[in-house]
Amino acid sequence: MTETTTDRRADGRALKHVQVREYVRDLVAGAAPGAAAPSERELVAMFGVARMTVRQALDTLVTEGVLERIPGRGTFVARPQRNRGRISGFTEDLRRRGVLAESQTLLARREQAGPGVARALSLTEGDAVIHWRRLRRGDGTVVCVEDAYLTEILLPGFLQQGMPTSLYADLEARGLRPTWAEDSITADVAGPEEAALLEIEPGSVVLRHSRRAVSGEKVVEVSRSVYRADRFTLWLQICG
Amino acid sequence: MTETTTDRRADGRALKHVQVREYVRDLVAGAAPGAAAPSERELVAMFGVARMTVRQALDTLVTEGVLERIPGRGTFVARPQRNRGRISGFTEDLRRRGVLAESQTLLARREQAGPGVARALSLTEGDAVIHWRRLRRGDGTVVCVEDAYLTEILLPGFLQQGMPTSLYADLEARGLRPTWAEDSITADVAGPEEAALLEIEPGSVVLRHSRRAVSGEKVVEVSRSVYRADRFTLWLQICG
DNA sequence: TAGTGGTCTAGACCACTAT
DNA sequence: TAGTGGTCTAGACCACTAG
Predict the structure, then answer these.
(1) What is the mean pLDDT of residues A195-208?
(2) Which chain B residue has its CA at the smallest distance from A180's CA?
(3) Could you tell me if B206 lies within 8 Å of chain A, comparing CB atoms?
(4) Which nucleotides of C are covered by protein (CB under 7 A)?
(5) How many CB pairs lie under 8 A apart between chains A and B?
(6) At what angle do helices B51-63 and A51-63 cross, to 10 degrees?
(7) Which of A148, A164, A165, A146 is nearest to A100 (CA)?
(8) What are phi and psi of B137, to 5 degrees?
(9) Does nucleic acid strand C have an atom less than 7 angstroms from the CB of B100?
(10) N or C: which end of chain B has fewer CB within 10 A?
C-alpha cells in the first residue's frame, strides 16, 4: 500500500492503481459483508495492467478496512468496522443510550483566558475564550454541571447565533469536529455550590471529567464536568 | 503493504521482506525523528532483493508510522505521531507519569466463565477463562484492586509461564495487543472487602473502571478495577 | 485440479529534490 | 546531474482452498 497524494499524474490522467481502486470501491459499496470482490487476475484482465498494480489498488482498500483477503479463497467485502466510532459529547452520548439530553445555559460569555485555560487551549493568557456553563439533564433529571472553554477565534459568531443544542454537532458543522481527546477522570465529593446545582448534599460522591478535545492540530474545547455519581456512568471508546 | 500473518515460510525461513523490514526497524529504533533511513536502492544492494520487495518492507513501516517517505528526497524516521497513542494498562500508564507500578497477585487461576464474563468475552458460559486478581501499587503505595478475565484459549501457557509484570506487554508479545477498548467509569464508595485491600475506610470514595479490550476481532481482556479516589486520576486518550 | 492470494524478480520510465 | 521515491510491467513459484 502506498499513500497517494494526488491520485493523478501531472498531465491529469488518473493513475492506474487509482482507477482500479476506485472501480472496486464503487463496485463494493453497499455490497453485503462477505461478498466476493473480483479476483486479482480478473482485474488484471479487465484493466490490462500488471498484477502488482492491482495488488497496490487492493492493498489500499484492505488497509482502509473496505476489503479483506483470505489466502487461497479470494478477496471479500470486509465485515462492518467495529470501531469507526466518533468522539461524542453529553448529548450524543445520552442519545445513544436512548436518554433525552437537555441543557440549561447558566452562563455564556466572552472571557479572557486565565493561565490554566490558556495552556489547555494552547493560547496566550488574556486571549479571548468563550466560557459556557450548562446544567445538563437526562430524561428530565439533573445529571451534570459542565464548564466548557472554547477558542473564540475559531468560532466566529458563536455567542451571537444562539447556543446550540449539541456543541459537537455545531463544531462538526464548522469542520471542527474533535478527532481525538485527552480525558482525565476522578472520583470526588461535591462542593457546596456544585451540590446545590446537582440537587445533592455537599459531600456526596461525584465523578469529575476533564476533556481536552482536538480537531486536527487545533484544540477546540476544554471542559470540566461534574456528574452525580448516582445517576451517571461515563462510557468511552478508546482506540490505539 | 501486506498483512503478514506468519513472518515465516512453512520451512521456517524468514520472508525476505520481513528480514528487510526488521533490519530497518532495528536500525531506526531510537534514531532521532527526521533522521535518514537507508534508501530503497541501498537496501536492494544490501539484501540482494528486488526493489518491490524492499518497498513492501518499507510500506509496512510507513503504515505503522515508523517511517515517512518524501518523494525526491528519501525515507526518514517519522516525526512523533500526534496520535499513535496505544491503549495502555496500569503499568504503562503509571510509567508514563514517572511512577513505578508494582503488582501483587492475589489470585490467578483457571475458572469457568459465568454469564457476565462469558458475554463480555464473547464466549459461551462455562468456557475456560483466566481470572487474575491483583493489588496494584504506585511508588509503593496501594492504589487499586483489579480483576481481569482473559480467554484461556487465546493464551496458551499463560498461567504456567509465571505472571507477567505488564499484561499488555505480554499480550503484545503474543500479537494480541488491544487495538481498541470500551471503558465504563463510575464514582462510588468502597465496600468492606475492597476497603480492606485498599487500606481505606469502608464508604470512602473510589473510582470504578471497567474495560473490554479488543485486539482485531478478539476480545482479549475484560477487567474491573477499583481505585482509591485520593490517589488516582484516570487518564485516557480518546480517538474518533 | 483449477483458482486464489502471497511472495519475488529484474528491469523500466517518471517527477521531484538537491548540489 | 545524480539520487530519490512513485508507478508500472510481465512474468515466476509457492501454499492454500475448494470442487
Answers:
(1) 97
(2) B239
(3) yes
(4) 3-12, 14-18
(5) 133
(6) 10
(7) A165
(8) -120, 150
(9) no
(10) C
